[in-house]
Amino acid sequence: MEYIPIIGLEVHVELSTKSKMFCGCPADPFGKQPNTQTCPVCLGLPGALPIANGKAVKDTIKFGLAVNCKISHFAKFDRKHYTYPDLPKGYQTSQYDMPLCLSGVTTLSDGKPIRIRRIHLEEDAGKMVHEKLDGKRVSLIDFNRSSVPLMEMVTEPDFHDTESISAFLKEIQLIVRYLGISSADMEKGSMRLEANVSLFQSQDTSYMIQDIDLPDYKVELKNINSFKFLEKAIKAELKRQEALLESGEKVKQETRGYDEDHDETFSQRSKEEAHDYRYFPEADLPPMRFSDEEIASIKDSLPELPQSKREKYSQWQLSTQYIETLLSDKTRGEYFEQAVTVGQKHNVSAKMIADLMVNKSLDKEFEEPEGLVRKIVELTKRSYAEPEAVKLAVEQVVQEQTKPVNDYKNGNANVIGFLIGQVQKILQGQGEPKLIQELLLRELQK
Predict the structure, then answer these.
(1) Which of 22, 42, 226, 344 sits most deeply, having the most CB atoms within 10 A of its CB?
(2) pTM across the whole model
(3) How far is CA 233 from the centre of its chain?
(4) For residue range 55-97, what is the model confidence (pLDDT) as tens digits?
(5) Secondary structure class of 319 (helix, strand, coil)
(6) Distance between CA 130 and CA 113 in Å, rounded?
(7) In the beta sheet, which residues pair with residue 230?
(8) pLDDT digits (tens, 9 = 90+) for 299-352
């Protein structure tokens, strides 16, 4: 029996706006004292009314355009109902049937397209903290994160291996950082990952993956905080599902976590369907409308994205390693490009600049690219002997080295290298090679 992994991703990104999604509280909860960045709106107190954060909406559209999504001309917010201690209102303001972005495609480095089902905007929940207090284990809630703008991207189940998943997620993280809409720092929780995992069974290995009928179940892996952690969790879950299917059991649709110590997933709860959330339009927020002109204006504001830079750097004859190293830090990449522009005026190649930046970190010694280029010119510049000194050395060699001179005149052109070496010996290596050869040939033809 052949088992093919069928995997889709959900990527949550906290947007780096100054204020929260629906109120004026600061949207930077990391490291702050618990429950010090809250107000009646983000605490869900009676009578508090939300106002949508326009920058968060625009940033979500930017990201949608960057990954080739169609931008909705009409979108709205909805209430997603579920009960959990970190959700003060008893529902999450999210988007259901009319999200901001739909039907995108992002291509992996190997040319494989990954379809993006939707990108929507919602508010983050609070944070549960489990610790000991007065000798007892307790669960506390910090609402500082409640209502921070949260962008969610949902892919189609187009992944069949963990390597392509990691490549895709790293590219998404890079795009988010190039757009400047989030730090996408996984350690701080500003980028969080979920995977929907199932296995396709077939006795016929001649099928095409795109022709596969999706399995009638999926297991959601939640609370993933690193690419490596996600890889391990998916592999452990695939192993568990295969064992169940091999024994003739049916895989239950549910939400599971991952225990890294035991390298296995564990059940958290049964997986909800859309109807379980009782979605309905958010009556306190008006729908959003976008004209073609508004969308075009946002598109024109996008910076040059990583894939475009890869193509440009490849034309400069840089290796893949150099390209990816320089692209991984947007600021450093911009520094490199400025150095290349300056270097062209001094015949300093992009390849040489990249080599000294990647292998020697020479750019860290100079705040401005001009300083780096001056240093490279200084390192590569040679002090050559005066032309008159070269001329005298050439004449001396022709007079003293009679045998190789006669060999040359008799048709043995190979001795020219020996004669150049003798001139350099007299000049202590300070002769300009092209000038030596030119004067030597002129002297030999007399």
Answers:
(1) 42
(2) 0.82
(3) 21
(4) 999 999 999 999 999 999 999 999 999 888 999 999 999 999 9
(5) coil
(6) 41
(7) none
(8) 999 999 999 999 999 999 999 999 999 999 999 999 999 999 999 988 899 999
> Token digits for 341?
């522009």
Structural tokens at position 86: 């970190």
Cβ-based neighbour number of residue 324 at 10 Å:
17
Please report the domains of the chain, with CATH numbers, ordered by start residue.
Answer: 2-294 (no CATH), 304-380 (no CATH), 387-444 (1.10.10.410)
Q: Give the relative orientation of helices 162-179 and 54-66 as an angle to the nearest 10 degrees.
A: 130
**Closest residue by Cα to residue 305 from 105, 182, 171:** 171
Q: Which tokens in the block code for residue 292?
A: 């073609």
H or E element at residue 219: strand 219-224
CA count, 13 A, side-chain hemisphere, 276: 6
Q: What contacts 228, CB < 8 A, 6 or more positions away?
A: none
Torsion sign across C-alpha atoms 179, 182, 184, 185: positive
Kind of pairing between the strands at 91-94 and 78-81: antiparallel
3-state SS track over 182-245: CCCCCCCCCEEEEEEEEEEEECCCCCCHHHCCCCCCCEEEEEECCHHHHHHHHHHHHHHHHHHH
Q: Which amino acid type is present at position 108?
A: L
Please tell me the distance from the alpha carbon of residue 125 to that of residue 104, in angstroms, as a whole number.
Answer: 27
Q: Residue 12, SS3?
A: strand
Residue 114 bridge partners (DSSP): 106
Which pairing describes strands 254-259 and 219-224: parallel, antiparallel, or unpaired?
A: parallel
d(CA 265, CA 238): 10
Q: The tokens of 433 are what?
A: 């090679």
- Residue 231's CB is within 10 A of a number of other CB atoms, namely 18
Please tell me whether residue 170 adopts helix, strand or coil conformation: helix
Quote the radius of gyration of the chain (alpha carbons, Å).
32
Alpha-carbon gap, residue 293 to 384, rounded angstroms: 61
Tokens of residue 97, six digits: 């049937």
Q: Quick check: 207 pLDDT over 60?
A: no
Distance CA 200, CA 78 (A): 34
Q: Cβ–Cβ contacts within 10 Å for residue 119, how many?
A: 24
Three-class secondary structure of residue 160 per DSSP: coil
- In 387-434, DSSP assigns E strands to none
Structure tokens at 32: 């702050």
**Secondary structure class of 344 (helix, strand, coil):** helix
Q: 82 with 91: CB under 8 angstroms?
A: yes
Q: Which amino acid is present at 446?
A: K
107 is written with which tokens? Answer: 């291509």
